[in-house]
Amino acid sequence: MIIYIMSHLDDVNMTYYEHLFGALEYSYMAFTSSIIFLFHGIFPDYCVHTGSDIIQNLNNKLQRVKQNNHQEYIIYLII
Q1: How far apart are CA 51 and CA 39, in angstroms?
Q2: Which parts of the chain fold into alpha helices (H)?
Q3: Which residue has the higher pLDDT, 10 or 6?
Q4: Which of 27, 51, 21 is nearest to 39 (CA)?
Q5: What is the spatial distance between Cα 76 and Cα 54, in angstroms, rounded to a whole number?
Q6: Under a CB-based contact definition with an 8 Å cutoff, are residues 32 and 78 in contact?
Q7: CA atoms lying within 13 Å on the CB side of residue 27
Q8: What is the pTM of this model?
Q9: Could you give phi then psi for residue 49, rounded to 5 degrees?
Q10: Cβ(67)–Cβ(13) under 8 Å?
Q11: Is residue 5 pLDDT above 60, yes or no?
């Protein structure tokens, strides 16, 4: 199991902590958008584009990381 994890980290050219904090950031963004989608489902006039904007932002971040081959990875946390 540990060999597999380290193999993945080598594949993506990231340290353990870069990978961990990146995954936490993506998880936070997905969870936040999920809550916003639920809220929007109950109250359709609110947060009309907010959830999809977060998902688009997440997709853009993932594409940048993929294009940069993880060498210029910067973590932005939304608090």
Answers
A1: 10
A2: 2-12, 16-42, 50-67
A3: 10
A4: 51
A5: 13
A6: yes
A7: 6
A8: 0.70
A9: -115, -5
A10: no
A11: no
